């Protein structure tokens, strides 16, 4: 990460706005693909032109012939580690990695040190991001067994959601009091985003694994047996029951099993306010990869069977699950090199999620329009984000220009993450992010940071 850190520090540039035309690109937006041009004036998209229409004079022109022009990716689940664990990553380094991968907006999780469980702590993170973030940002308020007052007072126009850990993970914020859970689902004014794993099942499975292997010899292949499908299914079932009981706005994060997909599908048919999300690594890896990847793919919930991978891809294809994210979670090489019980869970992915999805598109799993919907349109709609996620006149100019034919053989081996590694170093990514714009400012040019930090706080249009 050292080269990127130096680049960030040396190349802080003044935010100079100009009029700009991106011309002759293949625009992918709202289910359509066509050759056209986009006029950016200030922070916003001013006009979208079809092929052959007369273009105005501007300060700058980018010829996007042969390239894809799409809205910026919105990632609804990242762990940028600031405050408290900035040796792994921080808002500056990880948002830099994000924009290099075409992610122009992110929503960061609260399991920091100290955890973000008060409105004041959210404001503190907003202040840091306002000075350091290359991408747009919002921060989840973390739920605990006793912070209902903070949750009730949270402004749904300013905070993306409440994060409820119904299973423990990195930075234990487990909410396991039944009265507290009932109150949260009944009274939260915000979207409730859940990490669903049932702790009693995990503890029992872990005890069995220790008895079988001993503490120092548990193989990483045992991870999906310890953080088991049954633990995920039971927890998701409980979350959905609460949401149906109280008509809550529930969003189940990082779904990892075929059974959970069916639970969400059935619940959504009763209450459309119940939705789900999957992450790119559950469509890229499965349990057969633990032997070769080991701790590099240890994450919570665990990556499970090939049949689950296939079911997740199918659910995204069919629109049963419409939001695709990363759960970007960096740890140092030294931390990840420990044995099973000590190696922390989490993968750094935010720089490469779009390229992973484009690989899946090229392999025939998704159309290009479906990739854009699941990564850009649907996250914006799911969270009611104001004027982002689409290429529309009057919307913020968050755009990505992707070369769909240029293979990326460098960034997975030398990623921008502060932790300095990627689980994708042996995977051939078949596209390259060339340019990224955030709020009309170019933050990535020719696959390199420009040094401009252009991120703004996301706002949400509740009541729509």
Describe this entry's structure for a reader:
The chain has two domains: 2-70 and 392-411 and 429-449, Urease, subunit C, domain 1 (Roll); 74-382, Metal-dependent hydrolases (TIM Barrel). 32% of the residues lie in helices and 20% in strands. It is built from 15 helices and 18 strands. The longest helix has 18 residues, at 229-246. 55% of the residues are buried.
Short description:
The chain has 464 residues and is α/β, with parallel strands linked by helices.
> What's the number of helices?
15
Biggest sheet details:
9 strands, mixed
What share of the residues lie within helices?
25-40%
Number of strands: 18
What is the CATH architecture term of the largest domain? Alpha-Beta Barrel
Shape summary: globular
Overall mean pLDDT: 95
Keywords:
464 residues, alpha/beta, TIM Barrel, nine-stranded mixed sheet
In terms of topology, how is this protein built?
Elements: H1 2-10, E1 20-29, E2 32-41, E3 44-50, E4 60-63, E5 68-71, E6 73-78, H2 91-100, E7 103-108, H3 119-132, E8 136-139, E9 141-142, H4 148-152, E10 162-165, H5 178-187, E11 192-195, H6 199-213, H7 223-226, H8 229-246, E12 250-252, H9 258-270, E13 274-279, H10 281-284, H11 290-293, H12 306-318, E14 323-325, H13 333-336, H14 353-362, H15 368-382, E15 399-403, E16 432-438, E17 441-445, E18 448-449
Parallel strand pairs: 1-4, 1-5, 6-7, 7-8, 9-10, 10-11, 11-12, 12-13, 13-14
Antiparallel strand pairs: 1-2, 2-3, 5-15, 15-16, 16-17, 17-18
């Amino acid at each position: 990460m050292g080269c990127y850190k130096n680049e960030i520090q040396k190349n802080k540039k003044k935010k100079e706005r100009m009029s700009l035309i991106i011309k002759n690109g293949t625009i992918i937006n709202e289910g359509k693909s066509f050759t056209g041009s986009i006029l950016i004036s200030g922070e916003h998209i001013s006009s979208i032109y079809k092929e052959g229409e007369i273009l105005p004079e501007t300060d700058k022109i980018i010829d996007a012939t042969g390239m894809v022009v799409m809205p910026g990716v919105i990632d609804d689940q990242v762990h940028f580690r600031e405050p408290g664990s900035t040796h792994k990553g921080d808002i500056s380094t990880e948002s830099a990695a994000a924009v290099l991968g075409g992610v122009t907006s992110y929503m960061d999780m609260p399991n920091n040190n100290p955890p973000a469980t008060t409105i004041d702590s959210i404001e503190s993170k907003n202040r840091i991001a306002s000075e350091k973030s290359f991408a747009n940002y919002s921060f989840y308020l973390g739920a605990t067994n006793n912070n209902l007052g903070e949750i009730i007072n949270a402004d749904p126009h300013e905070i993306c959601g409440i994060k409820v850990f119904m299973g423990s993970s990195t930075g234990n914020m487990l909410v396991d009091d039944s009265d507290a859970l009932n109150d949260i689902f009944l009274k939260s004014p915000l979207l409730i985003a859940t990490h669903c794993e049932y702790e009693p099942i995990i503890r029992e499975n872990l005890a069995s694994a220790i008895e079988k292997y001993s503490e120092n010899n548990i193989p990483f292949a045992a991870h999906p047996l310890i953080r088991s499908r049954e633990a995920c299914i039971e927890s998701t079932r409980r979350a959905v029951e609460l949401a149906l009981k109280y008509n809550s706005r529930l969003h189940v994060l990082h779904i990892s099993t075929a059974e959970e997909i069916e639970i969400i599908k059935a619940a959504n048919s009763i209450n459309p306010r119940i939705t789900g999300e999957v992450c790119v690594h559950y469509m890229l890896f499965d349990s057969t990869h633990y032997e070769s990847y080991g701790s590099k793919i240890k994450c919570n919930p665990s990556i499970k069977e090939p049949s689950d991978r296939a079911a997740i891809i199918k659910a995204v294809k069919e629109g049963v699950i419409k939001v695709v994210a990363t759960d970007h979670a960096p740890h140092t090489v030294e931390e990840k090199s420990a044995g099973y019980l000590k190696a922390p869970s989490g993968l750094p992915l935010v720089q490469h999620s779009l390229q992973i999805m484009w690989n899946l598109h090229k392999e025939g799993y998704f159309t290009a329009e479906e990739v854009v919907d699941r990564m850009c349109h649907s996250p914006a709609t799911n969270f009611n984000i104001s004027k982002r996620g689409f290429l529309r006149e009057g919307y913020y100019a968050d755009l990505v220009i992707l070369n769909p034919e240029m293979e990326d053989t460098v960034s997975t081996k030398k990623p921008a993450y502060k932790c300095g590694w990627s689980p994708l170093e042996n995977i051939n990514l078949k596209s390259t992010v060339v340019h990224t714009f955030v709020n009309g400012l170019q933050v990535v040019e020719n696959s390199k940071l420009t040094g401009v930090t252009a991120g703004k706080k996301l706002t949400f249009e509740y009541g729509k």
